[in-house]
Design goal:
single chain; alpha+beta; eight-stranded antiparallel sheet; five-stranded antiparallel sheet
Length: 436
């Protein structure tokens, strides 16, 4: 059935929620847009401007960045596809609503690839870049560091293209939806290649003693299994070997092993078994984007902090001790990956090599329960003490004043936002609290 381009709040199909169902609301208007001209028209409309305008990509954020209730919500699901590929400059220009998965497949067919890849590929390209989503390359910044230009509709309804030689570009890289509606992005590409990925179970203490060695890999990280001393290390490095066909079927263990609501005492043997199974030493060759993907169930709440690499071993040790000592129900493997420093003003990796710690909790059957908030708030305080900066698309408990102190260019970003959108057209409740 065709989706209507415009609906009203009185119709049930206007309700919107994110992928895990933890952020939801009924927009005043839902606009399924098909192109840039439509977006300009919607942004210029006085009624839309008065109630505020938000943009929904794949809904793959745990945070309330979209804030749909009572606003005009633009859904870019139909605004997708490759605009062009420039082989001389090694760039691709893509419409904002295109998923990373679709982009990867198109590039692979052209013998090309993105320089880096997030662990999930369901997000839209625009959403992943705007929230400083990161990959697994210790020498690379967030995905926003591969951006070369962005085309967006600003608050006056005009179309603006910002390129990497303009002074505002490092603000636009990670804009969280504050600066306009992105319609297209130009990103770096590289020649398609394969990676040899190796996996092995390793004691957590041994990993923490050798983080510098792990960070020498082109891509790499590890999963710590809470309530145990075990982790599964992986690394992926370029190889000239051909990749066999990727087998079909689900990846990884059943959810009961890796995303459960067990007590710590019950989780310990389950996680120990999971670490032994998942950590069986093995090695294989994969297409570059496939090698960096993970498998994440949808019904969970997500939390992630970026901390300076120099403090990583200390912070992870304290995290493991705290989870055990306080009996926190952290019952999914903790994802640890690395990036290099980048230049986006609001990137958690701004001007520092970063270790990212991703923590998730299985959501209870009762949709409105917030049993995840206690363990997250404890870990939030812990990682904040280690100079942590929260991932923008994940849950956190930092106040705006605290966040501002963690970003040297915070005030510059706020001033730019006020110039570009003086009426706060693109500020929902979540963003208004931080960037008004």
């Amino acid at each position: 059935m065709a989706v209507p381009r415009t609906t009203s709040a009185s119709r049930r199909q206007t309700s919107w929620e994110n992928w895990s169902g933890t952020v939801r609301g009924v927009p005043e208007r839902l606009e399924i847009v098909h192109g840039e001209d439509e977006i300009c028209e919607i942004v210029r409309d006085r009624g839309n401007r008065a109630q505020g305008i938000g943009v929904a990509g794949a809904g793959h954020s745990y945070a309330g960045l979209v804030s749909p209730a009572g606003r005009t919500l633009l859904d870019l699901i139909r605004h997708k596809g490759i605009v062009s590929i420039d082989r001389a400059r090694m760039t691709v220009t893509v419409k904002a609503g295109t998923s990373l998965r679709a982009l990867n497949r198109h590039l692979a067919a052209e013998g090309l690839a993105l320089p880096n890849q997030s662990a999930i590929d369901e997000q839209t390209v625009a959403g992943a870049v705007a929230t400083a989503t990161h990959g697994s390359g210790p020498a690379m910044g967030t995905l926003s560091s591969h951006l070369r230009s962005v085309r967006l509709v600003t608050a006056d309804g005009a179309v603006r293209t910002v390129t990497d030689d303009e002074p505002e570009f490092d603000a636009v890289r990670v804009h969280l939806g504050c600066l306009g509606v992105v319609t297209a992005l130009t990103l770096d590409v590289v020649l398609a290649h394969t990676l040899r990925k190796t996996i092995a179970r390793t004691p957590l203490k041994k990993i923490l003693g050798g983080l510098d060695e792990l960070r020498k890999a082109r891509y790499g990280g590890f999963w710590w299994y809470p309530h145990t001393s075990q982790a599964v290390v992986w690394r992926a490095d370029p190889t000239g070997e051909a990749a066999p066909p990727v087998p079909s079927g689900s990846r990884g263990l059943p959810q009961a092993f890796t995303n459960n609501r067990l007590s710590p005492a019950a989780a310990r043997p389950v996680h120990s078994l999971a670490a032994r199974i998942e950590g069986r030493a093995r090695s294989g060759v994969l297409r570059c984007d496939e090698a960096l993907l993970g498998s994440v169930p949808s019904r969970l709440q997500g939390f992630e902090y970026g901390i300076p690499v120099a403090r990583a071993a200390e912070a992870i040790t304290e995290l493991a001790d705290t989870v055990t000592r306080r009996g926190l129900r952290i019952n999914a493997p903790v994802d640890v990956r690395f990036t290099g420093a980048d230049s986006a003003w609001l990137s958690p990796s701004y001007q520092r090599d970063t270790c990212y710690l991703g923590v998730t909790c299985a959501l209870p059957a009762r949709r409105m329960s917030d049993t995840w908030s206690r363990p997250f708030s404890v870990i939030d305080d812990l990682l904040a003490r280690h100079e942590g900066r929260p991932h923008w698309a994940k849950v956190h408990f930092r106040e705006p004043s605290d966040l501002a102190a963690r970003y040297p260019r915070w005030r510059d970003f706020v001033e730019l936002r006020r110039r570009w959108d003086p009426d706060g057209v693109f500020l929902g409740d979540y963003l208004r609290a931080a960037f008004q």
